[in-house]
Amino acid sequence: MSDARVQPSGDQAPDPVDPHRWWALIVIGIAQLMVVLDATIVNVALPSAQRELHMSDNNRQWVITAYTLAFGGLLLLGGRVADLVGRKRTFVIGLIGFAVASGLGGAAGSSGMLFGARALQGVFAALLAPSALSLLSTTFTDPRERSRAFGVYGAIAGAGAAIGLLMGGILTEYLDWRWCLYVNILFAGAAVLGALTLLHDRPGHAEARLDLPGVVLGCGGLLALVYGVSEAEPRGWGSAMVLGLLGGSALLLAAFVLWQGRARTPLLPLHIVRDRNRAGSFLTMGMATLGMFGVFLFLTYYMQGILGYSPLRTGLAYLPISGAIILGSTQISARLLPLIPPRLLMAPGMLLAAAGMAVLTQLDTDSSYVSHLLPAELLLGLGLGCTFMPVISTATQGVAAYDSGVTSATVNTAQQVGGSIGTALLNTVATSVTSHYVRDHLHDPRMRRTVVREGVVHGFTTATWVAVGVMLLGALLAAVLVNMRPIRAEPAAPAAPAPAAES
């Protein structure tokens, strides 16, 4: 847990520089974009899919929940599988499986088939995401190049959700909702071709054994957590089912931690999360996505339900936040990370994102895009761009190659679980506040539409204040826990911070 620069151990030779590493970054970026945007691209298409497949209002949430449940719950397993059988092999399998599942979902003739296909997408995404990040961490060995590569990756991780909303609007409006799933076949096909020709990885550790009790306890605990949080919105946080799932999750995860301290080949070696820099990075990522996904949900409803935007116009309205995230990741974080400690990017980034959310708390039923939404998006995007890149880079810095897959999975788990909790928690706050507002202010039935609109916005702004608090807490955690020094290039030792696995 030292704050000194991480150096490779003396018994590990440095990896040769991959001459195709920048092309490899494009391949990894395509795969990561596909996984991230698939969490939101279906949102805009959901009303059309619901009408065509005759889903009930209670069941429609499973189009989203089936994906996040499988994805978030199985990430640790996917990361360890990548370490055991090889990252490139797991990456290609994940791509092919994701494409097949997307095709099944696009061809769905019933709601059950669509739900199953979305769950299958989540399973293969849990294989794909950690192997993509661990391939990136072992492909780029020079600290300055690593900063630029992680800047691109961080931009994709942050902007992918907003890009998904834009693509969902375009595909739904001009083609059909099914193309929000079919488009993944094009992404995956291009990435598979690139992976087979451009990515390189030494064999995995086939002689190792998978920690089966750890799989049951860890993945079971995460599945119960994500499922419990997803059910909190329709059932309420006080329902017996939600409380049972969350209580069961706490017990399973506590047992998982105890077991990991005893297992010969643990699913998640505890030294990964005991390191204060990684722990701070994981917590910061969770806080950032908790606030971000909730705000994306509110803004989508606000623009379509209150301002009357079409799906396409809603998607276009998110473009500034995507551009700001890309700018923050590639032009600010990537340039400064080799020069300053990561916390001096993470903490100010979270504060900037909190300021953007604070602007959103001033929305009313007729706020203009230019005066309120645009400034908030730019502040939020720049803040997230300055946060995601150093978080991902710090979390994967100096990890032994054998643990790179599970470490990458832990980063993705923090992001996925944070987003799931944020969506459920903030949406529950918003709907509760809205119902109380309408009940207290609806005195004249003729004013119902006006009062309901005001109540919805009041619920959104109240929940956004909660998101502001979460972002401020994330800034504090980053400032206190992360104490790593800048990772500068050493002229005499161009070795990789994370050497590749032994064969």
Provide an overview of this structure.
With 503 residues, the protein is an all-alpha fold. The protein has two domains: 21-200 and 267-481, Growth Hormone, Chain: A (Up-down Bundle); 211-266. Helices cover 75% and strands 0% of the residues. It has 17 helices and no strands. Helix 3 packs parallel to helix 5 (111-139). The radius of gyration is 22 Å and the shape is globular. The two termini are 28 Å apart.
CATH class of the largest domain, named: Mainly Alpha
Helical coverage, percent range: over 70%
Per the CATH scheme, the topology name of the largest domain is: Growth Hormone, Chain: A
Strand content: under 5%
CATH architecture of the largest domain: Up-down Bundle
Distance between the termini: 28 Å
Alpha-beta content class: mainly alpha
How many beta strands in the DSSP annotation? 0
* Order of helical and strand elements: HHHHHHHHHHHHHHHHH
Total helical segments: 17
Radius of gyration (Å):
22 Å
Brief summary of the model shown:
This protein is 75% helix and 0% strand. The chain is mainly α. Helix 2 runs parallel beside helix 6, helix 4 runs antiparallel to helix 7 and helix 16 packs antiparallel against helix 17.
Key phrases:
17 helices, 2 domains, disordered N terminus, globular, 503 residues, mainly alpha, Sugar_transporter_CS, transmembrane transporter activity, Growth Hormone, Chain: A
